[in-house]
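The methods section describes the discrete structure representation at length, but only in general terms. Since the whole study asks how a given chain folds, the encoding of that fold should be made plain. An entry of this sort, consisting of the sequence and the corresponding backbone structure tokens, reads as follows:

. . .
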Amino acid sequence: MATITITQGQALEQFVRQALPAIQQVLPQHINAEKFIETAIGFLFRGGSVTEKIVKCDRNSVVSALVAAAGDGLLVDGREATILPYGAEAKYSPGVVGIMKKVRNSGEVSVIGSEVVHEKDEYDRWTDENGEHFRHRPARGNRGDVILTYAYARLKDGGMVFEEIDEGGIEDIAACSRGGAASPWQGKFRDEMRRKSVIRRLSKRLPMSSDADVVIRRDDDLYDMTHAVAVADDVPTVAKSGSRLAQAMGLVPAAGSDPTPPEPAGPTAATPKPPSKAAAPKPPSKAAAPKPPSKAPVAPAESIKPPAESVDGLIEEFQVAEGTKKDGTPWSKVGIKIGNLWYSSFSDSHREALAAALDAHQEVRISWRMDGKYRNIQTVDVLVQEEAASAGPDWDGAGPDEEIL
């Protein structure tokens, strides 16, 4: 094991303490800044190979990671949050305890948890007219190999939300992790990463504040989205991991489909001939031989756009998916939930307006048009305070089998 010189450790500790003013500026008022610093230093210098690697990281990256954790209101103690060495750069990563803390603080979730299931455990999961249910009794002693990981949340209205990922899906997520041998997926933290992965999946179906959503997405840059195992190169990891809700709302493509977002409609080989030619009568001698129906000059259904409709309401959920087309062009799509229905758009201006309305807790009026099975947003208007309803979003605890489109 390499020896850490006192000079290296002392220099880093001094540098971290000098960052106290910056940390105080972003730290929530209910967390004492001195306690935050002392807890972080205790974590950074707890000993072992991780400490050795963090000491050798760029000091500015260590401080940046601590400031990010402070902004999220999470202590860097190895439970709520951790600092991971990635080569010469230190990165902040929320822990399972920290993510669950932020979700509970959102005000709509009373209980949230996650566990790993082994092959010798007693485990069952089912859905009936009363919602989702599960039973898990861990085996004693040797529990066998891991078979899946699950997460659950009990909403304050009594509803249950449940997600599970089998070990094959977990392996695919781990394969996308950056860092190689230094990845937290390697070694004793693997169960922690399993639990965090399924909680991140579960969170997509929970009513949460925007700051909780930010914490959950903190780990996104720790995964290489371009090297997902057994997935098309331009499918985002959220699609690989099987998020049926994200696929249903149109944020990511369904398995086996082309993830490239639809392009504006243009003339194709199926475009009907001009009416002047179609109206030209054929000679009487050929009248008895009608043309096959496929050649009839009828406009294709996709060229007939349905009328636009509108809806008013508070944004109940907000999701953003990103990916890359086959030609290398990046794309992003925003999805919002109003009145238990999802609406989506590729427009950056729509995303900015909707995000601002979400943060300000203001109602929006959107016009939308059906495109296949998706409700595509056409316009977004933020309603003035006098017009907006005073009540907050209504969460009805809809189960996974409820139709949302």
User: Anything to note?
Assistant: The first helix runs from residue 6 to 18. Confidence is low (pLDDT under 50) at residues 227-279, 294-304, 385-405.
